[in-house]
Specification:
172 residues; alpha+beta; 3 helices; 31% helix; 28% strand; globular
């Protein structure tokens, strides 16, 4: 990743004129892989990214965080279905979280903070200075994720051992 850090190439994210910077994608994925491998001793596998055409969350608990810098602005969301929360909490906490209450929201909120914090560190090495915001948490079946920017949202499924969760990227 660091070998390519000086090459910032825009990647078209779909219709609507928005784009996602390759550096941001790599920084976020690098951060996500590190979190799962070091904190949960889990291997994750990204699926195929697709343009998201609605605001409906694919998970039961979502953490959304804005990322604003001079070079880019946007937001990310992590959205976890209950089976993914259960699988992850068993690895991290040695006990399964079986509901969508405060424990599930705290877990997703902390993961969102760690994800953006790790990406901020990577992007700072090439001069991006992102402001970190407090993650907004939403839960419940069918809740909506409202990204602050008008750009195209890209949905990336992430596979764990038994379940999957979703990373949404929306950058201008």
């Amino acid at each position: 990743m660091q070998d390519n850090a000086s090459k910032i190439v825009p990647l078209t994210a779909g219709q609507g004129g928005g784009h996602v910077d390759i550096l941001m994608i790599h920084a976020l994925l690098d951060s996500l892989f590190r979190i799962f491998s070091t904190m949960a001793n889990m291997r994750i596998t990204p699926g195929v990214p697709v343009p998201k055409t609605d605001k409906t969350a694919r998970g039961d608990v979502s953490g959304i965080m804005q990322m604003v810098a001079d070079q880019a602005q946007g937001s990310i969301a992590l959205s976890f279905p209950l089976p993914a929360i259960r699988e992850l909490s068993e690895k991290l906490l040695d006990e399964a979280i079986d509901g969508l209450g405060r424990e599930a929201q705290d877990l997703v909120g902390e993961l969102t903070n760690m994800l953006v914090g790790g990406a901020k560190k990577v992007t700072a090495e090439v001069g991006y200075d992102f402001d970190m915001r407090t993650p907004q948490l939403c839960s419940g079946s069918g809740h909506e994720i409202a990204h602050a920017q008008p750009g195209q949202t890209v949905l990336l499924p992430i596979r764990m051992t038994k379940s999957e969760f979703y990373l949404e990227l929306n950058f201008l």
